């Protein structure tokens, strides 16, 4: 091997492309998290403020919370194009906001 080959090999061994890629991935994730606007979790319903109707679905649109709505109202809003199946929803008992498409029995 020539001295230049040793220098080139040394540069490759000293660099860590996997570490650099991991840093870039973390930066990308951080940027994506900043762009997603998810409202804070609602306070859980207590025994006295449980909904007396079927309207118990909250929706998050552009970082704002709306509702409560019934399943029928949510289905109608999707059919009319007011919201999509990727609109975030929450109802009592859920641990986090989820897209409507991920919640069984909603759409």
Question: Can you put this structure into words, describing what you see?
Answer:
- The protein is of the alpha+beta class and 107 residues long.
- It has 2 domains: 3-35; 47-102, no CATH class.
- Helix content is 37%, strand content 15%.
- It has 3 helices and 4 strands.
- The chain has helices at 3-14, 17-35, 71-79, and strands spanning 57-61, 64-69, 88-90, 98-99.
- Strands 2-1-3-4 form a 4-stranded antiparallel sheet.
Poorly predicted runs: 47-52
CA distance, first residue to last residue = 67 Å
So what's the overall shape?
elongated
- The count of DSSP E runs of length 2 or more, i.e. the number of strands, is 4
Rg measurement, Å? 24 Å
Count of individual domains: 2
How much of the sequence is in beta strands?
5-15%
Average per-residue pLDDT, rounded, comes to 76
The helicity comes to: 25-40%
Strand count, sense and closure of the main sheet? 4 strands, antiparallel
Number of helical stretches of at least 4 residues:
3
Which sequence of SSEs, written as H and E, runs from N to C? HHEEHEE
Content-based structural category: alpha+beta
In which order are the strands of the major sheet placed?
2-1-3-4
């Amino acid at each position: 091997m020539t001295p230049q080959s040793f220098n080139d090999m040394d540069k490759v061994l000293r660099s860590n492309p996997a570490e650099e890629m991991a840093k870039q991935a973390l930066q990308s994730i951080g940027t994506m998290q900043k762009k997603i606007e998810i409202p804070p979790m609602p306070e859980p319903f207590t025994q006295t403020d449980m909904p007396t109707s079927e309207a118990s679905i909250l929706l998050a649109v552009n970082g704002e919370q709306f509702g409560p709505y019934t399943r029928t109202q949510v289905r109608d809003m999707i059919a009319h194009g007011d919201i999509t199946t990727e609109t975030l929803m929450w109802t009592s008992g859920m641990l986090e906001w989820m897209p409507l498409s991920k919640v069984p029995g909603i759409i």
